[in-house]
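Entry: DUF1080 domain-containing protein
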Amino acid sequence: MKKIAALLSAFWLCLVVGLSSFQPKEDWENLLDKDLSKWEMYLSYRHKPGYKGEQPKDADGVAIEPIGYNKNTSNVFTMTEEKGKPVLRISGEIYGCVFTKQEYENYHLKLKVKWGDKKWEPRTQLLKDSGVLYHSIGESGKDYWRSWMLGQEFQIMEGHMGDYWTIANSAIDIRAFIPEGDMNTVASAKQPFLPLGRGTNLSGFCLRSEDHESPNGEWTDIELICYQDKSLHIVNGHVVMVLQNSRYVEDGKQIPLTKGKLQLQSEAAEVFYKDVKIKKLPELPKKYAAYFAK
């Protein structure tokens, strides 16, 4: 009897182990934890009204150095919790960012974002502003505000979730299209891709196709699809921006920009991020590939 019981126990153990091997694997990597262990930070300046891109100076006209890397002055970046899950609070008091230690290429990024109440100079009378910067490379402080790395921006702004901005000397091509309806309708309404940014005749800024931001005080779901030179900005499940030919221009030469670090901006507004996760893409998902068809 003991032998039968032992055999039955072994059988059930093998069955459980065998069944577990058929369970779908969780291929999403969580990027936020209570220690912000997968991120570093950079802070530049408390920018004032009237700033025009020059290095700030003190009362004697001496150039002021930026605060620099991994110096969390005034606790601009703090970790809190919501229902036991880590939440990143960015006060916005000083321009800068947190950025991933790792570079990413060919991925699907998801996160949730919500505004706080505070605003700071020089944007006290302007819309609350932040951003997810992707394909970020090089040193921080290379942009107009001397606060971020070269990269592409998924704009996070009141009423403008999903807009596109170039950062420093980046450039990209953007397609205008009807974002809703079946793909046949979308395909029939597609326009040529327009080049924006460094080395083009157009400024590096473009509005999203529609506003899908959640009501004030609620979380907005953000998704970023990046595959090879292509990217899509998605807000609450709606594709609002279609981009390709990601690149930057240096000494007149166009260089592909298809991988890099992620940055979350501190830009004069209090903002909260949570559920930040990423997974690798072996190919561009079919449901999104149609947006790039000729």
